[in-house]
Specification:
The chain is α+β, with helices and mostly antiparallel strands and 687 residues long. Helix content is 65%, strand content 11%. It contains 20 helices and 10 strands. Strands 2-3-6-7-5-8-4 form a 7-stranded mixed barrel. α3 packs parallel to α6.
Length: 687
Amino acid sequence: MRNSSLYPKLALQSIRSNRKFYLPYLLALLGDVAAIYIMSALVNDPGVENITPGRPTGYMYVEFFMTVGMLIAFLFSAIFVLYINGFLMKQRKKELGLYNILGMGKRHIAAVLIYETLYTGIAGIGGGFAVGLLLHKLVSLLLHKVMGMPVPFGFYISWLGMAQTAAVFGVLLVVTLLCNLNKIRVSNPIELLHSSSAGEREPKTRWLLTLLGIVSLGGGYYIAINTRTGAEAIMMYFAAVFLVIIGTYCLFTAVSVFLLKALRRNKKFYYKTSRFIGVSGMLHRMKQNALGLANICILCTMVMVMLSGTLSLYLGTAEIVDQQYPGDINVSVRYLPDIQEGETPFDPAAMLALHTAFVESHGYTAENIRTSVETSFAVGQMPDGSYATEKFADTVAAVSITCITADAYASITGETLALAPGEIAAYGIKGGELTVRWVLEDGGELSSTYRIARRLKTNPYYSPMILQTITIVVPDEDALLELWRLQAQAYGTNASQMIWQAHIDVDCTEEELQALEDKYVAAIEDPSFYNVAGGTGSWTRSSFQLRSNGAADIYGLAGGFLFLGIFLGFIFLMAMVLIIYYKQISEGYEDKGRFEIMQKVGLSRKEVRSSIRSQVLMVFFLPVVVASIHILFDFNMVEKLLTLFYLHNTALTAMCTLGTVLVFFIVYGAVYILTARTYYKIVERKQ
């Protein structure tokens, strides 16, 4: 073995001989490298910083989403590469054992593996950079398109991105090499040579693991379906995901064994040729099948959750913009109705006149003007169904109550409500009454009860569901002011403020509106601006927001999420396809000898194909069916998370989720057709 050129040749020959295993692995490595380089290049591209002058959030969104994407993609790539490397080494045990029997020592085999890793790195990392350079501009175009931002000009090569990507994947390949070398070091040549002939013992029914799986899945599902607000969804989402992942692994390793043994005990089901072979084969190999099936199931779930959630947010963006910015110009003023001595009460009419006069003084017409007044405060939901302003920690839940007038409700919905004094229309309340107990700062207590004259099916006031939300509509501003004063007595200095809003449409272009906003910002620097014609009175904070600016931010955020969901979804989908492909090949070689024996003892070719089809279908579609069940239970939690972005359209989220699942089933079916052919060819190959 003194010929130093022998090891590189053996390494190349080994890769060439095992190309059906290595080629998908190299393609996956190439795709991961390209994806991470592209995201790194987008972060480091100096042209991105200048694409949204005056709106730094554009670059911030690109940087944030691509950085998060890089971290997730690399973490997943590390897990995926180690998983596939383990499969490759398992398939090559016989080959490596033969090298050892023919006189090659472990040092020589290690040299071959080092060259194989070197060739893999050159092909995977180098090819990934080539693909990344080719696709970088196209991906940049798509990203900025969905985010509603202009595309930076020029072609950019990120040498820093290349160095970072090469470093992390180089370290990853070195780790896989060390794992392989360690396996060779502790291996026995005879065991390697006969590893493919080793049988798999029938797994035992592990009752503790079965119980853990049922409890974990039940706990995850319970959290998901009982989540009521966006805040709860944020706090409990990862706990629910963790429980479902544990439950999924237990489901395929222990619960599946329990169910298969139950099917075997059912003589009417079990003693049929296709079922007998399928169930017995799955049962005897369930220990090694379980990990692959669970991984496929989790990947399916991740892809469908990401795509359905981000697609719902993106398609609902126009609705979110309409809700948050009803007018071209949106003015919001916070004020206290009860003022200190010497102060002038806030004058909504004067504030509206000031803004309309400002618009018209620059040659534009203010039209379609809508105003509204509202307030909100937090209460605790008591066990008896009433609400109180004390000891939130001792109550069932903290609740946010938003109060608007009937006029504001009519402006939002176009529907007129006829409410008598003491009556309200309500969203989010069960029963026929709303009772609030006001615990005052001095220890006293007041109680208010309102009859619910109309229960609203949809929430007329859209806000992020940080707390469980109730919206009530009162007859007029006097009733609204009464509620505000009651909560002010209960909360004192922590009391909520009243909010006056005006939404104004202006007949001009977006560029003219931007110029008008700049003039407004310059005008309010003069303290006397709000004191024209008698002044606007006392208030604490005012804001002037353009619909176009708000829409740009919302589209940028939603588009970034959609792009990241598609990008990572593609990576996860690629990994899922390869795991399925390798699983089909692995099972094909394991089943080949078994089916040959069955044909020799009298099983017809038709019966063999029927048995193969039954087993492949049972194994193949089980993960996606379980993933669909996960999606069904996860829907409520995803919907609550979307409310944090002001999306309250349950029908849209449901349609996006259903559409994603259906499309995914079609893609999954196509993968099944392609990979099943490989399995059939291996199993039915003639000697």
